[in-house]
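[recover] target loaded
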């Protein structure tokens, strides 16, 4: 059957998928999901090939669904999902 294949490091499997991701959460999550975001933030600081520390925002006394200090439409524009459209009045 041949030699067993060595597994790549855990970060090598997922690091590239997280490049340019915006992650925001409140620090008052009902189910403490914000702790997982903090752990992800710490892990991303150590990623290599590619290294990307991520873009993390924590809302003071906000729930986990907090999307940052901007509206959801503005966040989607920042992420490049919505085009920057200007409507004439």
């Amino acid at each position: 059957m041949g030699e067993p294949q060595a597994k790549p490091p855990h970060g090598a499997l997922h690091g590239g998928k997280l490049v340019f991701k915006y992650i925001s959460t409140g620090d008052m999550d009902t189910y403490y999901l914000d702790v997982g975001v903090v752990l992800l933030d710490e892990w991303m600081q150590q990623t290599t090939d590619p290294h990307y520390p991520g873009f993390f925002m924590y809302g003071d006394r906000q729930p986990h669904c907090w999307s940052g200090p901007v509206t959801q439409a503005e966040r989607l524009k920042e992420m490049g999902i919505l085009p920057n459209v200007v409507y004439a009045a």
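[recover] notes: The chain has a mean pLDDT of 75.
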